[in-house]
Amino acid sequence: MRTIGRWMATSKSIIDMTAKQERRDSDRAPSMWACPYELTKLEGSAALKSSRGYGYSINMSPGGMLLLLPQKVDKRQVFEVQVPSKAKKKERTKLVEVRWTQSIPVSARVKMYLVGTRFLFEPPAR
């Protein structure tokens, strides 16, 4: 969380950078909040590795969102993210697919990752 806090001061430059991209299908709205997520990766031939953490939402559209994550994800990877709902005033679980990713060096040993995602559908309530 501390690393994500450092990026709050520079989030405007990230938003400005993403605003220049012309490959968008719809308008984006700034959305700066911490979003819990859960990743599941295949390790080896049969083992699954699950990890949880918090990402930092940069912007959002009806079709997807831009996240700043503390761990690397693969293109086309699918994972769950908790997205705040203004109407229901609680978080909703969204299933997202990674469309693209870009590493951002924070220090000599630490990287964060900008991750463009698209919403797939909302999983049923647990």
Using brief descriptors, characterize the structure shown.
126 residues; mainly beta; Thrombin, subunit H; 6-stranded antiparallel barrel; 2 helices; 7 strands; globular
Characterize this entry briefly.
This protein has 126 residues and is mainly β. It has 2 helices and 7 strands.
Spatial separation of the terminal alpha carbons: 27 Å
Low-confidence stretches: 9-13
> Into how many domains do the coordinates divide?
1
- Broad structural category: mainly beta
CATH architecture: Beta Barrel
Number of helices: 2
**Biggest sheet statistics:** 6 strands, antiparallel, barrel
Could you give the count of β-strands?
7
Query: Going across the major beta sheet, what is the strand order?
Result: 2-3-4-7-6-5
The helical percent reads: 10-25%
CATH superfamily: predicted glycosyltransferase like domains
Average per-residue pLDDT, rounded, comes to 79
